[in-house]
């Protein structure tokens, strides 16, 4: 499916701009700069499907991508959170958009919660996990940028993250480890997304 059609559909700055809920969706969430856009690009084998940026907080909208011909499911790049310099009004707008999307989106099958492997789960990630728990949206924690740390540190952060995930009702117990840079863990991620979207 990923080797077939993958197209950008639209960017929704508010819920009224969402596409019709006609096919299953899998969303990507995580802190600003965690590597959501890069991982989406690696997953779909496209170089710049989702815009990857060096400026944190560039993705402010819900970005929809369509996979398959005929259309099979959609991927949703959610706006990043935890950007220190964001004004309170922007944070509040983000919170409302994301919370209402998670609560109300009937076709949303699963969310992938991306966490930087160098940092592990931070308080802002834990808040996001609580929001997902409350919205009853199942999610998998995905460690990103695994190429940035040593194998021993990676094993340690993976174990720690799995222990954290087990404390959350809607979290999948298994944590996926990836690097968009090295194309590491991408096949497993692809399999997980297909399973989440289509089963
Ligand atoms: P926002 O949309 O701004 O919230 O960011 P994002 O989560 O979409 O992150 P993005 O994909 O734009 O990546 C942020 C920065 O991290 C970029 O400079 C990427 O090149 C870098 N990056 C992303 N993935 C990896 C990775 O696997 N390894 C390394 N070393 N760098 C990465
Ligand atoms: Mg992005």
Automatic annotation (TrEMBL):
Molecular functions (GO terms): GTP binding; metal ion binding
PROSITE patterns referenced in this protein's UniProt entry, alphabetically: G_ENGB
Keyword Ribosomal protein: no
Keyword DNA damage: no
GO CC list: cytosol
Cofactor(s) needed: Mg(2+)
UniProt record, GO biological process: division septum assembly
InterPro entries registered for this protein in UniProt: G_ENGB_dom (IPR030393), GTP-bd (IPR006073), GTP-bd_ribosome_bio_YsxC (IPR019987), P-loop_NTPase (IPR027417)
Domain EngB-type G: 22-199
Record keywords: Cell cycle, Cell division, GTP-binding, Magnesium, Metal-binding, Nucleotide-binding, Septation
Task performed by this protein: Necessary for normal cell division and for the maintenance of normal septation.
UniProt similarity note: Belongs to the TRAFAC class TrmE-Era-EngA-EngB-Septin-like GTPase superfamily. EngB GTPase family.
Protein name: Probable GTP-binding protein EngB
Organism name: Novosphingobium flavum
Lineage: Bacteria, Pseudomonadati, Pseudomonadota, Alphaproteobacteria, Sphingomonadales
């Amino acid at each position: 499916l990923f080797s077939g059609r993958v197209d950008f559909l639209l960017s929704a700055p508010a819920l009224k701009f969402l596409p019709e809920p006609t096919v299953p969706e899998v969303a990507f969430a995580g802190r600003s700069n965690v590597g959501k856009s890069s991982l989406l690009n690696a997953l779909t084998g496209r170089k710049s499907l989702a815009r990857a940026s060096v400026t944190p907080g560039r993705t402010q909208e819900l970005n929809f991508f369509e996979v398959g011909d005929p259309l099979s499911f959609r991927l949703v790049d959610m706006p990043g959170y935890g950007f220190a310099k964001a004004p309170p009004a922007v944070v509040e707008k983000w919170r409302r958009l994301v919370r209402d999307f998670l609560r109300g989106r009937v076709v949303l099958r699963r969310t992938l919660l991306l966490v930087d492997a160098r940092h592990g789960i931070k308080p802002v990630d834990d808040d996001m996990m609580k929001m997902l728990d409350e919205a009853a949206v199942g999610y998998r924690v995905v460690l990103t940028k695994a190429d940035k740390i040593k194998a021993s540190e990676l094993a340690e952060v993976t174990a720690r993250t799995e222990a954290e995930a087990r404390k959350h009702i809607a979290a999948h117990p298994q944590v996926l480890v990836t690097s968009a840079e090295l194309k590491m863990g991408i096949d497993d991620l692809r399999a997980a997304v297909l399973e989440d979207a289509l089963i």
